[in-house]
Amino acid sequence: MNSDKKSLVIYFSHTGENYMKDGIRNINKGNTEVVAEFIRKITNCDLFKIEPLKSYPYNYSECCNVAKEELNNNRRPELVNYLDNIDNYDVIYVGNPVWWGYPPMVIYTQLEKLNWDGKIVMPFTTHEGSGLANSVSEIKKIALGADVKEGLAIFGSDVNNSKSIIENWIKQNNML
Ligand SMILES: Cc1cc2nc3c(=O)[nH]c(=O)nc-3n(C[C@H](O)[C@H](O)[C@H](O)COP(=O)(O)O)c2cc1C
């Protein structure tokens, strides 16, 4: 099913070691990326993947330390590529893992560069217990003038089984 609304997913997703229900595991494709790709299948939207210029560490605890330092110091890490505008889109899905209760700071770097006026925003997270945490409230602070819809939170360990939940969320918000 394809949407008549022009949609884009902006997301960040980390690969490497991650903490899952059954302990620390290596993942080759990030959980948030799995969700982003389901949204693309469902809505036929475009994807923009946020990539930090300096990659986050592969090692889980090192990555946690870097993430905490960036959050505590309100950093805006540089990106490989920047999306300059979202003029051609009606609906922007914004996806991130929850890191220390917040979106990773690279999300702020990208979102703050855009003009959100008149856009519809569909926020989603993957997490291991915190749900949406502060993601939606943080996105609302940045996406001024946008209609930010109710967010969707998916357990990282469940992403591969989440297609119907994602589809329902999109339909409930009349985005198809
Ligand atoms: C640095 C770091 C911090 C995290 N902090 C939280 C957290 O505060 N709450 C939570 O539920 N999960 C937390 N997690 C788990 C991730 O949100 C979860 O595994 C997510 O699905 C990862 O998505 P990704 O594979 O797309 O990066 C954290 C993971 C990392 C690496």
Could you characterize the architecture of this molecule?
The protein has one domain (7-172): 3-Layer(aba) Sandwich (Rossmann fold). 29% of the residues lie in helices and 23% in strands. It has five helices and eight strands. Strand 2 (16-20) and strand 3 (23-27) form a beta hairpin. The longest helix has 13 residues, at 31-43. The model has no long low-confidence stretch (mean pLDDT 95). The structure holds flavin mononucleotide.
Could you provide a short overview of the structure?
By secondary structure, this protein is α/β, with parallel strands linked by helices.
Note the run of SSEs as H and E. Answer: EEEHEHEHEHEEH
Number of helices: 5
CATH top level assignment: Alpha Beta
Amount of beta strand: 15-25%
Number of domains: 1
By CATH, the superfamily comes out as Flavodoxin domain
Q: Major beta sheet, specifics?
A: 6 strands, parallel
Helix content: 25-40%
Topology:
Layout (H helix, E strand, L loop, with lengths): L6 E5 L4 E5 L2 E5 L3 H13 L2 E4 L10 H13 L18 E7 L7 H7 L8 E8 L7 H8 L4 E2 L3 E4 L7 H10 L4
Parallel strand pairs: 1-4, 1-5, 5-6, 6-7, 6-8
Antiparallel strand pairs: 2-3
Which short descriptors sum up this protein?
globular; Rossmann fold; six-stranded parallel sheet; two-stranded antiparallel sheet; 29% helix; alpha/beta; 8 strands; binds flavin mononucleotide; 176 residues
